[in-house]
Amino acid sequence: MKATNIREILGLVLLLLLCLCRNVYAAKKVSDSADAVSYFTLGNLTASEGGRWSAVSKLYGRELDSLLVFDSRQKEIPVLKLRGFSTAVSFLNNHYLFVTGTGKAMLIDLTTQRRKEFNQLKQAGVLKDQKTFFILGSDKVLSVYDYDGVLLNHYSGINRVVTDKVKILIGISEVKTIGQPSDSKSDASSLTTVITDFSGKLPVELYRKDSKVERIQLTERQSYLMMTEKDRVKSEIQLLFIDVKTRERKSFFVGDSGSFLKLDVNELENGTSLWIDVWRKEVPGRTVPEIWYGNDGDLKAKRNGYITVHDYYLWKKKDHTPLKIGDRQFPIFASLQRTDQVLAFNPRVNFNYRTRVPLPTLYVYDVKHKISKAIFNHALETIAAGDGSSVISYNSEKDTWFFYDFDTDESIAIGGKQLKKPVYDSIFKNIFFESNEGFWKYDIRKRQLSVVKGTEGLRSSVLSSDQSSLNTEYHIYSRNLRRDQSLILSVRDENNQTAYGLYKNGRYTALLADTPNRISEIRLTKDQKMIYTIEENYNLPPRLFCSDSGSKKKDVIFAGNTADLDAKNIRQDIIRFSNSQDISLRGLLYYPVNYDATQKYPMIVHIYQIRSTDSNLYHHRGDDVGFDLRALLKKGYFVYLPDIVYGNKGAGRSALDCVDSALNALNAHPNINWKKLGLTGHSMGGYETNFIATQSNRFAAFISGSAHSDLIRNYFSYNYNTNIPQIWRIETGQYEMGVSFAEDKQRYFTNSPIHYVDQVKAPILLWTGKKDENVQWDQTMEFYMGLKRFDKKVIALFYESGDHTFYETPENNKDITFRSMEWWDYFLRDQKEVQWISKQMKKDAL
User: Fold this and answer.
1) 163, 125 in Cβ contact below 8 A?
2) pLDDT at 552
3) Interior angle at CA 606, CA 726 and CA 644, nearest 5
């Protein structure tokens, strides 16, 4: 046989082998992907007012699959299963269900299963107080039905509707100007906007004008219909407010449409006045080159290309025109839910970005007399009482909440940093605080702070409160309970044992018995006698439960993913350890599926700050980026999730200390193969992994995703995702360095992985998305270059379309998750036939 023929045959054989390898690789990925499909969770819990009916959505990853409806008298099996109807779910009367999906809706009698379908929709919804629902079709016909599905009214020519989903239904129409030929092809200037209120028995026209309505909506408390319209001649923006009850109209011009950005409106004193914040942009003259000043406190404007300025107006109902509020000293104002005084501050004076947002000195500004008084310093979060009687603010320098009373002009320190998320009661006599050390009440009249009996030492959180934004950028809100709203609490102990209770008349009463399960959603019936919950645990797929208030008895309405047969066999140990600072921490150790006490197994350590709070979290395939705990357990790995806290050593060295302590706590475990340990993390966990890789010889391989490698470069960088410098993130944010670079250069240097890149002793896989603006992808490139320079075993994966989390590109997540599994198998299970890894690891493979 000729040599050329031999070469041809060998070439064909190699080609066939290559195709076979690709097919096997693809088949494995398809199999892995198909396996992930069998894992689903539950969400979007809804319950009927009487408690007989409930509904949940099946979720595969981030995708909605179907809606399941249950009858409490017929447990376990859904009485109804619907696909494509999970966007809004409403139970009507005692036995009707109204559901909407994209372009469709359906009314279902749950007792007879009779259905009324609506297709080709633009909008649909329920008016709770009216006991009606509406359908707006693509044919521009608005139809209103009662809860039984009987047509009450229909109106034609409606382009869209605005509703509060309670009792207000307003239609917007665009009609040809009188005399305009119906076949006219002239531009939008020939259209007249008509706004009609369909809330009552008869429609009432609210507005008709030959102008372009840019935006229309109800104010937050639904007292006014608010719109912005563009004058066709002057190109100015006019604000128009229509009182929903009296139909009274008010309007005024706010300036050129080219500079208008948006507006925020707050109702004051039960809707008798309006606080209006108009956002405008000012475009500075362009310079060549760009000029960046050291005293510039608004670097976001450089990215945006314009400076945001605010015009503030106070409009009292009795006044014909609004009062413009302005003062050279204060560029920013915020409502205090009063008409005589507002908050005033200058947030950008010498702002050096040590914190994410400025921590300004807040002043009370007298609107009439134009005088001010400083009441709060270093304000991180500020909450105003809904009736304007008082305001509280957190001083970040003193770690203390301060209370200011308008009547007494008195400022008082309340308590420390353990107090979180304050909420006023419905009559503004008490302020409640969440904390990790119980639920706290501040009695305003007595000026007394006390912990609510029965919650001592427990992590508490409020489930029910109303929040209005007064200035989101600077964390200024109004937060209180409604008069018809009960104060429902969630409390947890250090072992994640959870209970729910009701606070009423100074007492805490248990509603739901303590459970070791994680409760992801909870719904109470109107009389609070029945409680529906979605609960899960590390060995329990999410389930739907129903229980009577105050009872320990709990019925399973839906057992969830019963196909996940491995879940109940998952074993978890909670490992307690302390770091070198004697801080008590915990780690979650998961055992391999089919664990055999006579065998040794490799172990993957997955890190990202605190992990022990997830001890009762149900893990499913694809629930984390680049990491699949369930698949690792199935393949025969231990998985260890230890806590990490930061201290004066800096983030990297603190992480190293905690991981070393966590591993030491497992030293006596006879079934861990200590020569086959892997360490991995993403984002902050990736940084921790990078640093530990430069310092530790305990691991056989590493995987690091979307991670920083150089703290100093990052500290002096600009984040194009948040449009602010990174200084705050390192100094006072997630990295908790606590000091500036100038104050402790050594701390910054010794916590930067890149400075020790030559010390990495084990193979490392790096990955990132090239569209990542949260952690710049070139930080991964930098670490890769350092490892390459010093002949370390490294492979870097750069995903062209990937962002920081890969949520928007699930194909990237599938790929990195699969490759991560191959990486671990290659180094920890000696499965060496992986071509893309062997090209780096085997000599002369390239």
Assistant:
1) yes
2) 80
3) 60
Report CA-CA distances (Å) from 437 to 118, 313, 494, 525, 783: 51, 42, 10, 29, 42
Task: Give domain status of residue 742, yes or no.
Answer: yes
The least confident of 88-102, 480-494, 524-538 is 480-494
Cis peptide before 289 (omega within 30 of 0): yes
- pLDDT, one tens digit per residue, over 718-753 is 988 888 899 999 999 999 999 999 999 999 999 999
- The sheet with strand 764-769 has its strands ordered as 572-578, 584-590, 638-642, 601-606, 672-682, 701-705, 764-769, 794-799
- Cβ–Cβ < 8 Å for 195, 206: yes
pTM comes to 0.89
- pLDDT for residue 178: 53
Residues 6+ apart with CB under 8 A from 693: 679, 699, 702, 704, 753, 760, 762, 764
The model's pLDDT over 506-535, given as tens digits with 9 standing for 90+, comes to 889 989 989 999 999 999 998 889 999 999
Per the structure, how many domains does the chain have? 1
In a domain, 90, yes or no: no
Strand partners, 400: 395, 416
Domain annotation covers residue 768: yes
Question: What is the domain extent for residue 774?
Answer: 572-841
Nearest 5°: the CA angle 140, 145, 150 is 125
Q: Name the pairing type of β-strands 794-799 and 764-769.
A: parallel
Measured in residues, the chain has a length of 846
| CATH code of residue 836 | 3.40.50.1820
Give the Cα separation of 600 and 598 in Å (integer). 7
Would 366 be classed as within a structural domain?
Answer: no
**Residue 293's pLDDT is what?**
87
